[in-house]
Write the structure tokens for this entry.
Amino acid sequence: MIHRFPHLTAPLQLRAVTLRNRIVSTAHGTFMSENGLPTERIAAYQRARARGGAGLIIHEASSVHWTGTGAGRYATCNTDACIPGYRRIAQAVHEEGGVVFGQLYHPGRGDIAGTTNDGTLGVSWAPSPVPCERIQLMPRALPAALVQELVTAYGDAAARLRAAGMDGIEIMGHHGHLVSQFLNPRTNLRTDRYGGSFENRLRFLMEIIEDVRARIGPEPPLGLRIAGDEMGFLGLEGREAQEVCAAVDRLGHVDYYNVIAGSCSSFDGGVHVVPPMAVEPGYVAPYAAAIKARVTKPVLVTGRINRPEVAERILAAGQADLCGMTRAMICDPALGRKVMDGRIADIRVCIGCNQACIGHGAKGASISCIQYPESGRETGLGAPRTRAGRPVSVLVAGGGPAGMKAAAVAAERGHRVTLYERGPRLGGQVRLTEKLPGRAEFGGLAENLAREVELAGVRVVLGRAVDRALVEAERPDAVVVATGAGPYRPAVAGQDGAHVVHANDVLEGRANVGGSVVLVDTRLDWVAMGLAESLARDGRRVRLAVTGYMAGQNVQAMARDHWAGVLHGLGVEPVTYRRLGGVEGGAVVLQHMVSGAVETWEDVDTVVLCSGTVQDTTLEEALAGFGGALHLAGDCLTPRTAEEAVLEGLKAGLAI
């Protein structure tokens, strides 16, 4: 692989530290801290990525001061109590031959600002009282004395992380957080020595850099993470970020620049904080290249770099010197080792769904991955696979995500596994998702799981549904029922006199959709937004009625916000709080879900019901009295998402 990926696999020297390759797991929230302090779960999580061959791990952002700490699941390094936990993390990474840096953080007016353990709102602090678009709090302006205290707090925090064994330090200056707020003339309206001119706005960052370098000494690497462009309302602009980096570079204390895009402060910038699959892989590279042209030290770039081929292309073009492949290593912690060993086909490729990585944070849950639920569960489900004490024969019914994961895990444990799929391809409903604009990569979930099935040695039979007769003929010791779900078709008043179809009919090409379409969305997931985009791009008039607060209400925020912008550009304006009352020929009757008011939409050719699916219990019922072990996984229990299907498939495979 040195010949195929010569740039990505090359070592890099940063002061006294040697990185074994250019693959970086950049700082990201794990949501596993307890009372702000590191846990054994986090140490195990980072150990997995070090064992998997990452060249550098930059540990998650840790708040440096009491004015910037949130609820207890967010990391802190503002007291000496953090040192033992960070020491365990550093030791875990070092034992696997890895390098780990700590990141210093203060949210200012955004991100975790105002969050508390008891649900009340705390005070948020910022350079000036300019509210944040995404978090509707009015921040309190930092007094000059408190600004000075914060500078010292950064240095104190850096000293703690070094005392814990961290190999280097990174200062967070990106995503519209506190340092960025000081740099930005639209959020820093101060009239003292920390506001006004470029030099004054830069002063806070410069003083932090000088204090941190003084506290950690000359040997450890020191980095700055900055957005090449915050790409959002009132955000730091590209030319401003380039000027900042050029000025910092002249100071001589910073050893690398970590370039990303987006901002947590605005809805448009927020899309780029963790860009969804509809965004082009590697798209931040030009912003990194613009900064690289202004500085003398290495540049790290992050943003949808999900394959080694993408990373190698960026490095070979000279746009950056290191590549952040963070979600790629949440999805496949062993990515680095697989690249170094030449096992490229075995890499579980991140599809940018955002559902269980950043998406779990909004649910108050710890980080994971829908494709690899072992991520974030390293101390439990992620432990090394144990071989079964007595191998048995296993029949898996259904080749969707749940069935494939169950089959692969059971086979890895030594069981003899046959997977039956009634259709011509593995993948289940994943094959519907990939048909929509901007969702093609979701099909990678099926390809990745199919590769796991192949590597595990599972026997696969396509085009054969499982019934009781087949089970009795095969005589397996255990059966995993993963038969999924079928379309849920609710009765609609007047549907016999109108053209009413299910979303699946459209996705599978069975419905002849007219020129004027009304989508009725009762699931608030990816289906209605995706169909609305697809049909609008085909030139149809599309109206979207939503039985909730917003279209895509159950879709991860960054993916949903991106889609909302796309639909707006196509002229599709979702109408919320509406339930379907019925159809009358070429008209649709809707009712406001709270007031009860009725309205009629005229000139409708086709009504598409985005009503989801209902569990298929046919095989489960047919196997009543089956003498072997019976396990259910995925949508046949009740329809949810691919995340639950893969997790339940994993558990079923481990239970046999």
Summary: The chain has a mean pLDDT of 96. Residues 12-362 form a domain with the TIM Barrel fold (CATH 3.20.20.70).
